[in-house]
Amino acid sequence: MASKPPVAFIGLGAMGFGMATHLLTQGYAVTAFDVFPPTLDRFLQHAQSHARGSTASTASSPSAAVAAASLVVCMVATAAQAHAVLFSGPSPAAAALPRGATLLLCSTVPCAYVRDTLATALVHAGRSDVDLVDAPVSGGSIRAADGTLSIMAAGSDPALAKARPLLQAMAAPDKLYIVPGGVGAGSNMKMCHQVLAANHILAASEALGLAKHLGLDLHKTAAELLVLAPENKPRMSASWMLENRLPRILAQDKDGKAPVASAVTIILKDAGIITSEARRCGFPTPLTSVAEQVYLAALGRGWGAEDDASLVRLYSEGVGRVGPVSGQVDGDEAKTGLVASLLEGIHLCSTAETVAFAHHVGLDLDQVYELCVHAAGGSQVFASVARDMIRVLQRGASREPDGRQETLPLAVDKMQTVVDEAQRLKCPLFLGSQALNLLRLALIKSEEADGEAKAAPSTAVLKAWAA
Amino acid sequence: MASKPPVAFIGLGAMGFGMATHLLTQGYAVTAFDVFPPTLDRFLQHAQSHARGSTASTASSPSAAVAAASLVVCMVATAAQAHAVLFSGPSPAAAALPRGATLLLCSTVPCAYVRDTLATALVHAGRSDVDLVDAPVSGGSIRAADGTLSIMAAGSDPALAKARPLLQAMAAPDKLYIVPGGVGAGSNMKMCHQVLAANHILAASEALGLAKHLGLDLHKTAAELLVLAPENKPRMSASWMLENRLPRILAQDKDGKAPVASAVTIILKDAGIITSEARRCGFPTPLTSVAEQVYLAALGRGWGAEDDASLVRLYSEGVGRVGPVSGQVDGDEAKTGLVASLLEGIHLCSTAETVAFAHHVGLDLDQVYELCVHAAGGSQVFASVARDMIRVLQRGASREPDGRQETLPLAVDKMQTVVDEAQRLKCPLFLGSQALNLLRLALIKSEEADGEAKAAPSTAVLKAWAA
After folding, report:
1. CB atoms closer than 10 angstroms to residue B233
2. Tens-digit pLDDT profile for residues A361-374
3. pTM of the model
4. Which of A426, B211, B341, B396 could form a disulfide with B216 if both were Cys (CB 3.0 to 4.6 A apart)?
C-alpha cells in the first residue's frame, strides 16, 4: 500500500466526496481541495472515522493540493469550474503540477472542452509534460463511495497506463471502459450515455405525474412499473433511473419535498452538453432538446438546487385544478399499462437518439452498448433493442427479422392511446408527445421506403434520426 | 330590413357577443341565450344603446331561444358545450328547432364532431330536416363585433344558400370562404389555420421572453419585430398574432397581469383539436404538440383563465434567478436580430406543418393560402413561402428555383445561433429548439436526397413532415 502514488483530489461534491474517501480506503494518500471549506473538514472527519490509518490531508488552494501529487483527479461540476481550477481561478493548479504528473478530468464536460480547450491550454502553459486522461464517470454517489463506478477513460497509451490503477480503484471490476480515440472520446461516450440519463430522469417524473392524473396509487404503480408479477421479472418499462428516482418522486409527492441527491442543475448541465455538441456537429436531438427545455423551465421557477425527482410536480401540479376531466381508460391494470407504455415509448426513442448520436460521433457501438446497458442509462428497452439498432448501423442491415419486437404500427398505437388519455386528463406529456411524433415520422418514412411498415420499431425509429 | 329571418344566437362569449350584437345592427331580430344570465342583460343594454330600433330579445333556455328562429347560430366554446346545447343539456335546442331550420355551428370543433357525432345525432333525433352548416370563424372579438370575421363555411348547397346572407353579415366582404367537401370541411380548414394560431401565440411569448433574457427593452424590441426602419416595411418576423398579443405581453411584463382577451384554455382547446385529429388520421404535428404541452403546463399552474399573452412569464420568470449567465451576442441590433430569427424559424415550421396537414386532410390548398394569409394565422413568412410549399404538393415539383429564399443551411445556422445564445442565458425555447431540430432533420433528408442541400427551406422543411 505504501507504494501507491500520492493523489490530489479537487472537487468534493456528491460524487467527488465518495470517490476521494474511497481512495483513502484503497491505500492512497489523498490531498483534497474544495471551494467549500466545511467539506474539507468533513473529509478529514470521515478519514478518521472510516479510513483509520489512511493519509488524508487538505489544501487551501488548487495549486497547494497538487504540488506533491503525481496523480490529480479533477471532479468539479462543469468545464468552466475545471478551467478555473487549472488555469484561470485563484492559485490555479496547472503551473503547480509536478513534472510528468497525470491529470484525470472526471467531470462531465463537452468533448470540445477537454480535447481542444483544455489540451491546448496545457500546451500554452508550457505543460506538455502533463499526461491528460479524459475520464468521466457514471453511477451516482453510492457507487462513487463504493468504488464501483462506470468509468469511460480515454487518452494516450502512456497516460492511460499511468492512470489505470487509480481508475481501477474507482471503477467496478468490469466497468472500466477504455474508450479508443484519445482525449475527448471518453467525454463523447459519457455524453451519449447521458442522452439516456437526461431523458429517463424526466421520463420517471412524467410517468408518475401521469399516474397521478390517472388516479393511481403511486406506491403500487411504482412497484409495478419495475417488475411484473407473479414471476417478478423486470418489466419492459423499467430503467435504472426509474428505480433510482422512484423513492424521491414518492417523497416529493407525499411531503412536497424530495431529498436532494442529484440537483436539477446537474442534469440540465449534461443535457446542455448533449444539445450544444449536437448542434456543433450537425446532429438533431429532438428528445433531449425537449427534456432540456423542461429542465430550463424548472430552473426558471427557482428549482435548480432541488432534486431532479422533484420535477414530478411539473406534471402533477394540475391534478384537481384543471377543471372537470374524464378519462376513457378504466381499471388500475389498464391505467398502469398506459404509464408503462409511456415509459417504453420514451425509452425506445431515447435508445435510438443515443445509438444514432454515438454512431455520428464515431464511437465503438459495441462498447456503447456494454457501457450503457450496465450503467445509469440502462433500461429494459435499451437491453432489448439497442443491439438490433447497432447491427443496422454497423452492417447496413435494413431489415433484421426480429420475433421479439412488436411491430412499429403497434408501438405507435400504444403511444397514441397514452397521449389520447393524457390529453383528456389535461396532463402534459413533454417527452411522450415528442416520442409519439417521432414514432409517427418513423412510420411514415418506413411506409414510404417499403410500401408497408414491416420494419421493427428499433430499426425504423433509428432512421428517423438520420439515414 | 323587415324581411330578414329571425335569428337565435346561442353562446355570447368574447366572440359570440360581438357577432350577435353586430347582427342586430344589420337588421336581424336576434333572440339570445347564454348560460351566464348577466351576459343576456348586457346584450339587451347594448341593443338599446348601440342598436336603436333593433329587435333584441333573450331566452331562458336553448329550446326557448330557437323556437321561432329559422336561423340558429351556435357559438359556444367547445364541442361538448355544443352537444349539451343541442341534445344533452337542460331544455336542449334540437327538438325545438322549427321545421327546416338552418343551424350554423360557428364554434371551433373537431371535424369528427360536426361531421359524424352532430350530424348523426340530428338524424337520430328525427331532425334530418335541419340544414347544418359547419362555419367556424377567425378574427378576434373586435372583428366579430365589426362583422369583418373570416368565416370557413361548409355544408350542402341548399344549406349554404340559406345561411349565406347571415354569413355575409358576419364576415368581411372578401373573407367568407365556402369550403368544398361538405360538413366537416369548414372545421378542417379552421383546424389547419389554428396550427398557425397555436404556434404563433406561443412564439410571441417565447420571443419576448428571450428578449427579456437578452436584456433588451421590450417596447423597442416589440416595435422592431414588426416593422423594419427606415422604410417601415413589415419585417419577416411579423405575424398577426405577434402584433395582436404584443400590447398584452408588454402589460404582463410591466404590471404582472395582462388584460384577458383570449384565455389560455381557448388556444389549448384548439391545440387539442389539432393534435387529436392529427393522431386520428396518422399525421405528425411536432410543433403544435410542443405548444400544447406548454399550454397544458400553464393550465396545471392555474393560469387557464388568464390571457394567453401572460405565458411570457413561462420564459421570463427565470431572468435574474438562474444564476450567473453570460451571452456572446453584443449590441441591441444583433440581439433583436436573434429574436427575429427565432420567430422566423418557428413561423417557417408552423407554415410547413399547416400546409402539410391541410394537404393530408384533403383541403384546397389555394383556398388555405387565401384564408390564412389574411386571417389571424397570417405571418410574413407564411406570405413569403406558403405558395412555394403548395406548388410542391400540387405539382410534385421538388425544386422550385426561388431567388427570394435563403438557403436551408443558412436557415439552420440562424436558428442554431439563437438556440446557442438562449442556452447560454438559460432561457427555455420550447418552440425554437423544436424548430431547429425539424430544420436539421429536413437538412439531413435534403442532403441525402440530393447529395447536397440545394432545396429552398420551404420545400425541404415541408418534406420533414411527410413525403
Report:
1. 11
2. 999 999 999 999 99
3. 0.93
4. B211
